[in-house]
Design brief:
- This is Cytochrome P450.
- It is a peripheral membrane protein.
- The chain has 501 residues and is α+β, with helices and mostly antiparallel strands.
- The termini are far apart.
- The C terminus is likely disordered.
- The structure holds protoporphyrin IX containing FE.
Length: 501
C-alpha cells in the first residue's frame, strides 16, 4: 500500500518507520524540559545519551568540574533521559545530606538488583538500609579497630616486603594491584578471620575475579555503558543476561563467604568468641546483639534480624568496596609522594620520630602522625576514589529556592568540589598544609567529602584511614619512591639502595 503526500507517493512501511522513530524520539526526550522549567541551566541533552557525552569528552570527574564553572553550582544533567540535578553548593549539600536526609535517604538504582548482590548496603532503601546499617555499625567501632591494628600491621609489612622484592627485579610494575591485594588481605583477616594472602600470589583467584569485576571497559562491561547512556534499557539488558558482574565471579565470592560461615559455625566451641564483622552479622541474624552498640543511623525503630541474603550480599560487597577504593587511594598517595620528594622526606622523618624503634605502628601512634594525616587528606582531595556520589529524592521539598521532586536524581560532584578554585586555591597543586588541624576545624565539611557525608557516609571511613596510614608507615619507612607514572606504574628503590632501613 502507498500513501500520497504533497504529490509524492510514499510506501506505507516508510510512513510507519518515520512515525515510529518520531514517537521514540518524543518519548525519549519527554523529560528534557523538566529541569529547565525549574530554572536550571545545563549542557544540551541529546536523545538516548542525554548529557553523558560531556563526561566521556572530559572524564567522569572533570565533566561536572567544567560544567560547574559554566552553569554554576547547581545545574541540570540528563543520564539518558533521566533528569539529574547536580548540586555543588555546600549549604544545599548540608540540607540534602543531613538536615533533610529523610527526603534523600536512598541512592539511585542502576537497573534491577540481582542475586547475590540484591541486599548490599549500598543499594538498600529506607528501613531495610537503616536496619542493616544499625546492625553492622558496631563492627567498625574504635575498640574493634584498635584490636585490628595488629593484623593491619602484618598485612602492611607484607605489602612493603612485596613491593621491595618486586622493585629489586622489575623497574616498573602495577602498584595498584599490590595495594588492592593488601586491602583485600586486611578485610579478609579483620572482617572474616581468613588468612588469604592474595599479595604473595598474583594468580590468586580472588585477584583474577576482582580485576575482571573492576574492568569497566565497554568490551568487558557493556552493562556499564548501558547504565550510563540509556538507563531506560537496563531492565531489558538485565533480562537478556547482562550484568555488572560475571556469574563465575559471583559464584566464587558466594562460595568464599559460605565456606567461611560454615567454618565459623563448625569452629571449636571452646575457641574464644570472635568480634569481627562476620560475627557481628551472624549475631544480628540471630538478634543476639540487638541491644548493644546502636549505630549512628539508629532512630530507635524496632531492629529486625538480618536475613541470609543480607549477610551474603554484604560480606561480598565489603570485599569489592575495600579492593577498589583502598587500591586507588594508596596508589595515588604513593604517586603524590613520588611527585613531591620533600613531602616524602617530611613524612619519613615524622614516622621515625613517632615510632622510634618500634616495628609496628599502634592505633595511638597512628593518631600522632599528624603530617601523614595531612598528606592522606590532601591526596584524597586531589584524587578522590569516588568521583561523585548520589541521592534519590523521595518527595517534594524546596531547598534554597530549588524545587526537588520524587525520583529526582541528585548528583554530588565530589571531584568538582575538591577542585573548586574558590575553595582550594591552585587546586591542581598538592599542598598538605591545606589540612593543618586548625584549617580542618575551620573547613566547611561540605566542600570536602572523599567519604561522602551524613548518615549514609562510608561506613568504613575510620578503618580505611587507619589502613592507609599503617600501610604508608611500613612502605615509606623502608622504601624510597623516586618515580611514579600515572599509568599506575611505580618505580621503587628498595631499602638497600635508598639507605632506608
Ligand atoms: C579510601 C577508601 C574509601 C573511600 C574513599 C570510600 C568512599 C566511599 C564513599 C564516597 C561512599 C558513599 C558515601 C555517601 O553516599 O555519602 C562510600 C560508601 C560505602 N563504603 Fe566506602 N570508601 C572507602 C573504603 C571502604 C572500605 C574499605 C569499605 C568496606 C570495608 C567500604 C564500604 C562502604 C559501604 C558499605 C558503603 C555504603 C554505605 C551506606 O550506604 O550506608 N568503603 N564509601
Amino acid at each position: 500500500m502507498e500513501i500520497p503526500l504533497l504529490g509524492f507517493v510514499i510506501p506505507t512501511w516508510l510512513v510507519l518507520l518515520a512515525t515510529s522513530l518520531f514517537l521514540i524520539y518524543k518519548y525519549n526526550t519527554r523529560n528534557f524540559n523538566v529541569l529547565k522549567d525549574l530554572g536550571l541551566d545545563g549542557p544540551k541533552p541529546y536523545p538516548f545519551i542525554g548529557t553523558f557525552y560531556r563526561s566521556i569528552q572530559s572524564g567522569i570527574g572533570k565533566g561536572p568540574q567544567e560544567n560547574m564553572l559554566r552553569y554554576g553550582k547547581v545545574y541540570a544533567e540528563y543520564s539518558g533521559n533521566v533528569p539529574v540535578m547536580v548540586v555543588g553548593d555546600p549549604d544545599m549539600l548540608k540540607q540534602i545530606m543531613v538536615k533533610e536526609f529523610g527526603f534523600f535517604t536512598n541512592r539511585r538504582k542502576f537497573g534491577p538488583a540481582t542475586k547475590p548482590l540484591d541486599k548490599m548496603m549500598t543499594i538498600l532503601d529506607d528501613d531495610e538500609w537503616r536496619n542493616l546499617r544499625n546492625a553492622t555499625t558496631p563492627a567498625f567501632s574504635g575498640g574493634k579497630l584498635r584490636k585490628a591494628t595488629k593484623d593491619i600491621n602484618e598485612c602492611a609489612a607484607n605489602l612493603m616486603n612485596n613491593l621491595g622484592t618486586v622493585a629489586d627485579v622489575d623497574a616498573t610494575f602495577d602498584v595498584k594491584k599490590y595495594c588492592g591485594s593488601f586491602s583485600a588481605d586486611v578485610i579478609a583477616r579483620i572482617a572474616y578471620g581468613v588468612d588469604m594472602d592474595s599479595q604473595n600470589d598474583p594468580d590468586h583467584p580472588f585477584i583474577k575475579h576482582m580485576k575482571s569485576s573492576l574492568d569497566f571497559s565497554i568490551r568487558k562491561k557493556p552493562f556499564f555503558a548501558i547504565a550510563m547512556f540509556c538507563p531506560g534499557l537496563l531492565p531489558l539488558a538485565s533480562k537478556l543476561g547482562f550484568s555488572f558482574f560475571e556469574k563465575e565471579t559471583l559464584d566464587y565470592f558466594t562460595n568464599l563467604v559460605h565456606g567461611t560461615i560454615k567454618m565459623r559455625k563448625n569452629a571449636d566451641a571452646a575457641a574464644p568468641e570472635r568480634q569481627d564483622f562476620l560475627q557481628v552479622m551472624m549475631e544480628a541474624k540471630e538478634m543476639k546483639s540487638a541491644k548493644e552498640g546502636l549505630g549512628e543511623a539508629d532512630d530507635n525503630r524496632q531492629r529486625k534480624p538480618l536475613t541470609d541474603a543480607e549477610v551474603l550480599s554484604n560480606c561480598i560487597i565489603f570485599f569489592f568496596a575495600a579492593y577498589g577504593t583502598i587500591g586507588d587511594a594508596m596508589s595515588m598517595i604513593l604517586y603524590s609522594l613520588a611527585d613531591n620528594p620533600e613531602v616524602q622526606e617530611k613524612v619519613f622523618d615524622e614516622i621515625n620520630s613517632v615510632l622510634g624503634d618500634s616495628k609496628e605502628c599502634s592505633y595511638d601512634q597512628v593518631k600522632q602522625l599528624s603530617y601523614l594525616s595531612m598528606v592522606v587528606d590532601e591526596s584524597l582531595r586531589r584524587y578522590p576514589p569516588a568521583l561523585m556520589v548520589d541521592r534519590l529524592c523521595s518527595g517534594d521539598v524546596v531547598i534554597k529556592g530549588y524545587k526537588f521532586f520524587k525520583d529526582l536524581v541528585v548528583t554530588i560532584p565530589v571531584y568538582a568540589l575538591h577542585m573548586d578554585p574558590e575553595i582550594w586555591p591552585e587546586p591542581e597543586k598538592f599542598i598538605p598544609e591545606r589540612f593543618t588541624p586548625d584549617k580542618k576545624t575551620e573547613m566547611n565539611p561540605y566542600n570536602y567529602m572523599p567519604f561522602g557525608q551524613g548518615p549514609r557516609h562510608c561506613i568504613a571511613m575510620r578503618m580505611a584511614l587507619v589502613e592507609l596510614k599503617v600501610a604508608l608507615v611500613h612502605v615509606i619507612r623502608n622504601l624510597r619512591i623516586p618515580n611514579f607514572t600515572l599509568s599506575s606504574k611505580l618505580t621503587i628503590q628498595p631499602s638497600s639502595s635508598s639507605g632506608r632501613h
